[in-house]
Amino acid sequence: MKRIIRLSMLCCLSLLAAAPGAKAQESGTIQAIATVVTSLSVIPMNNLNFGTILPGIDKSVDKADVGFAGEWSIMGTASAEVTIDFTLPANLYTVDSTAFLRAWFSPSDASYEDGTGGGQVVPAGILNPGGPSTKNIGAGGIITIWIGGTVGPTVSQTGGDYSGDIVLTVAYTGA
């Protein structure tokens, strides 16, 4: 019996010795990296100024009217794609909101300069202020937006100062 136990133990040891050894393991590490683009800055430069208007006579300001057209300067990451969206007033109101003045904007009432055009008078392109547009910030990290529009006073328009907010929203698209 001792002999059988010794023989069994010898067989087990032989099998263990004959089993292939553990293989060496390899591993590799990579980094997770990201670059966060510069935040956008939308800087109002000039109000859309219709000046003095006469009752019953519509008055328009062209986007190329320096000093009268509304203007914003947008600073961000050079060449990044952005959406440009306007929130436009249908009316301008007196301070006490007792009277309103109709306002409207045509599909060609806004323009932009990204460094590839000739500035406000000969801009890089036209924007439709009635819907969102997708453009690229200029190579210098700036795009400038101008807007014009029209107001239509009635013949019996109440005299006084009128105003309304024009909001420009700009956001990176991620493209």
Written description of the protein model:
With 175 residues, the protein is mostly beta strands. It has a single domain, classed as Sandwich (Immunoglobulin-like), CATH 2.60.40. Helix content is 10%, strand content 34%. The protein has one helix and 13 strands. The strands form three sheets. The protein has a five-stranded antiparallel beta sheet, with no helix packed on it. A five-stranded antiparallel beta sheet has the order 2-11-6-5-12, with no helix packed on it. Strands 9-4-13 form a three-stranded antiparallel beta sheet, with no helix packed on it. The N and C termini lie far apart (81 Å).
In short:
This protein has 175 residues and is mainly β. It is 10% helix and 34% strand.
Radius of gyration, in angstroms, nearest whole number: 35 Å
Structural class: mainly beta
Q: What is the CATH top level name? A: Mainly Beta
Q: What's the CATH architecture? A: Sandwich
Strands, total number: 13
Number of folding domains?
Answer: 1
Number of helices: 1
In N-to-C order, the SSE pattern is HEEEEEEEEEEEEE
The percentage of residues in β strands lies in: 25-35%
Query: In one word, what is the shape?
Result: elongated
How much helix is in the residues?
A: under 10%
Ends distance: 81 Å
